[in-house]
Amino acid sequence: MEIISSDKRLEVPISILRYQTFWKRFRGLMFRLTPIKNEGIFISPCNSIHMFFMFFPIDVVFLDEHHQVVKTIVHLKPWHVVWPVKHAVTAIELPSGTIHKYQIKIHDKIKL
């Protein structure tokens, strides 16, 4: 994954899996017991998520159709819901702490 903004271009050493079928998108990380570390999931289409049956927090980045960040959520805890995000068409679920570590912000572009 690569983060591109006006002041940086940064390669992030996280493997991203694509979840694009209905069942993969629906299940996401549910029921997984151990937190994700050097991996994340790209969910498409997706403009909202739930954390039901999750056992660890995650960071979430919502992207528009141009893969530009429209919303970031840091340390989203289990059993919470993120209602539809305006202009979002995809979401990337990442290990908790990723957004701060790599300074991901609104208007950055994400290249997979």
TrEMBL record:
Organism per entry? Salinibacillus aidingensis
Checking InterPro entries in the record gives: DUF192, Saro_0823-like_sf
Q: What is this protein called?
A: DUF192 domain-containing protein
Q: Which domain of life is it from?
A: Bacteria
